[in-house]
Amino acid sequence: MAVTIHDVEHIANLAKLKFSDKEKEKLQVELNKVLDYIDTLNEIPNLDKVEPLENINDTENVFREDVPEKCLAKEEALKNAPDKTENFFKVPKVIDK
Amino acid sequence: MYNDYAVLRSDLNSGKLTAVDVVKYYLANIEKGKHLNAFLSVFKEEAKETASEVDKKIKNCTAGRLAGMVVAVKDVLSLKNKTLTCGSKILENFEALYTATAVQRLIDEDAIIIGKTNCDEFAMGSSNENSAYGAVKNPYDHTRVPGGSSGGSAVAVAADMCMVSLGTDTGGSVRQPAALCGVVGFKPTYGRVSRFGLTAFASSFDTIGPFAKNVQDIALVLEVMAGWDEKDSTCVKKEVENYSSAIGSINENEMTIGIVSDLPSEGLQKEIKDTTDKVIGFLKSNGYQIKPVELPHAKYSIQTYYILTTAEASSNLARYDGARYGHRSKDSKTTEDMNVNSRTEGFGPEVKRRIMLGTYVLSAGYYDAYYKKAQRVRRLIKQDFENAFKEVDLIIMPTTPTTAFKIGEKIDDPLSMYLNDIFTTSSNLSGNPSISIPVGMDNSGLPIGLQIIGRDFDEIGVLKLANYIMRNC
Fold first, then answer.
1. Set of chain A residues whose Cβ sits within 8 Å of the Cβ of B415
2. What SS3 class is residue B145?
3. Which one of A29, A47, B27, B55 is at 20 to 30 Å from B160 when CA atoms are compared?
4. Domain map of chain B by residue range?
5. What is the pLDDT of residues B107-128, one digit of tens each?
6. Domain extent listing, chain A
7. Quick check: B242 pLDDT over 60?
8. HEC states along A34-85?
9. Which residues does residue B168 pair with via DSSP β-bridges, in sequence order?
10. What is the ipTM of this complex?
11. Are A28 and A4 in contact (CB under 8 A)?
12. Which residues of B touch A65 (CB under 8 A)?
């Protein structure tokens, strides 16, 4: 199998998710099954000569004048905060001493 | 029952009935259909208040183009000061800070928003079983799925709980549930309708589209919603045509219809194939040119779609970190704990699976092998459509390989669930407009959908043919 349990743990770490051992095994099987199916793309000949499609409508950068506009009030921006203090979002300590 | 906005509007104008009556009628149906689990929130009092304002405007002849049209909105679209759950536990108590452009434009024309509809978590799913708030049931058979991810919106129209609803379509999430619930569902060209206020799943695929019982109402709603918006830089500066007045006239001899000769057809239910053939036969006998076309890379749609959309999703969903909004785990001693535990507790299994796949295909060493490769195939698929549309004006194919399947039937097999979108994902990869219309029933009495795909920004062509088939076939 292409994806190992170690890979699952590595990816989970990058994605900031945590899984039980049982969930990891299940994910390993599911990911491998989907990736096997995805690998059928390899049968397309000369694919590396095709330019990757990044922008479906070929739109270009959209600029506007650099003038300040009305934005959210502080109270509004903090409305959904799980925790706050005065005008700030409150989070746990970044470094646990 | 009001199946047609034009008829309803003339009754409102003549004073035969009021917008308040209409809202009460739909509220009663929402109550009656509670077991279908189509709605996540219903704005009972507010909808009645808005309706009475609309009634005043109708009397004063100042009412907008959608006055008295009762609309339900998928709960991935923002409506200011209303909860926006996205079908996820992670946003259980989240209140939107602004209104989506597409929704605002309907409100500005005096549409009445009656509630927010259930959907697969973050629009990821084809059965509506991935909602943290429970599965939605198909009104034709309560043991079956309504399709997804906009299952609640499809059911709301099918079970007569509103006149029109909005969904979102990233890989078929409007067209597939429309097919499974026997209603019309439309996916506009990518860039035609602003995505501002639509919670991002896969930004280069996401579109907003309406559900209704007929094509005329779809055309009218689309006409109001579409058009440039400075808040979405992928929204195209292109004039919006008068879809609603253009769709009535059709010249059969002017249109060539393509049927795809190399369509991947394993697993295609016989009754769906037969019904599609019947419609093609009908068109032929009415003077349409029918021509076979090839989409040689369409068979790679699902693979390409799952690489690109999961990659975009893994990046889009990184914002749910427990810091500024959404669920924060009680177990948050450090910021790292807060990030990991909030996400682990807040996301459901399918969302986690897709974040994992997306993170994997973007991770060091795999980017070229997966992500870039899929972008190359995406170009080939788009070119397939461009080539086909040199030969024909529109393409017809089934919307789904099967009619509504049983709840629980595919939930443990992600790949077989993904394959349900085999006919719908290709036009999200290419950006083309497409519609699903109801064209019959299978032997178990379940609705069958037919899909029509058009050239980029030829919403008129798609809507015209859809209207013609629904009225005449």
1. 33-34, 37
2. coil
3. B55
4. 5-246
5. 999 999 999 999 999 999 999 9
6. 5-42
7. yes
8. HHHHHHHHHHCCCHHHCCCCCCCCCCCCCCCCCCCCCCCCHHHHCCCCCCEE
9. B208
10. 0.95
11. yes
12. none
The reply to whether CATH 2.130.10.10 applies to domain B5-246 is: no
Q: What is the pLDDT of residues B90-105, one digit of tens each?
A: 999 999 999 999 999 9
Please state whether B441 falls in left (phi above 0), alpha (psi between -120 and 50) or beta.
beta
The radius of gyration of chain B from alpha carbons, rounded to an integer in Å, stands at: 21
pLDDT value for B248: 85
Q: What is the pLDDT of residues B16-72, one digit of tens each?
A: 999 999 999 999 999 999 999 999 999 999 999 999 999 999 999 999 999 999 999
**Minimum CA–CA partner of B205 in chain A:** A56
- The answer to whether residue B149 is catalytic is yes
Encoded amino acid at B228, one letter: W
**pLDDT 10s digits, B244-270:** 999 988 777 789 999 999 988 888 999
Name residue B100's amino acid: A
CA distance B143 to B131: 16
Q: Which of A51, A40, A46, A17 is nearest to B360 (CA)?
A: A17
Q: Kindly list the residues from chain A whose CB atom is less than 8 angstroms away from the CB atom of residue B333.
A: 92-93, 96
Contact B359, A11 (CB under 8 A): yes
Q: How confident is the model at residue B147 (pLDDT cuts 50, 70, 90)?
A: very high
pLDDT at A40 over 60: yes
Written as one string, the DSSP assignment of B351-410 is HHHHHHHHHHHHSTTTIIIIIIHHHHHHHHHHHHHHHHHHH-SEEEEES-SSSPPBTTSS
Count of CB contacts below 8 A, A vs B? 149
Task: Decide if B236 and A81 are in contact by the 8 Å CB cutoff.
Answer: no
Residue from B201, B190, B260 nearest B423 by CA: B260
Distances (CA, A) of B162 to A1, B3, B72, B178, B212: 49, 10, 6, 15, 9
For the stretch B22-32, pLDDT in tens is 999 999 999 99
User: Taking a C-beta distance cutoff of 8 angstroms, is the pair B205, B171 a contact?
Assistant: yes
CATH classification code of A5-42: 1.10.20
The catalytically annotated residue of B78, B88, B126, B149 is B149
Give the model's confidence band at A1: pLDDT under 50 very low, under 70 low, under 90 confident, else very high.
low
Q: Is there a contact between B146 and B183 (Cβ–Cβ < 8 Å)? A: no
Distance from the A69 Cα atom to the nearest Cα atom in chain B, whole angstroms: 13
- What is the pTM (predicted TM-score) of this model? 0.97
What's the per-residue H, E or C state across B175-222? HHHHHHHCCEEEECCCCCCCCCCECCCCCCCCEEEEEECCHHHHHHHH
ω before B149 within 30° of 0 (cis)? yes
pLDDT (tens digit per residue) in B373-423: 999 999 999 999 999 999 999 999 999 999 999 999 998 888 888 888 999
Helix (H/G/I), strand (E/B), else coil: B340: helix
Matching residue, tokens 């790679």: B300
Question: Which of the residues B131, B165, B173, B427 is marked catalytic?
Answer: B173
Task: Give the chain A residue nearest B322 (alpha carbons).
Answer: A82
Instruction: Determine contact, residues B128/B120, Cβ cutoff 8 Å.
Output: yes
Chain A hits for B332, Cβ within 8 Å = 92
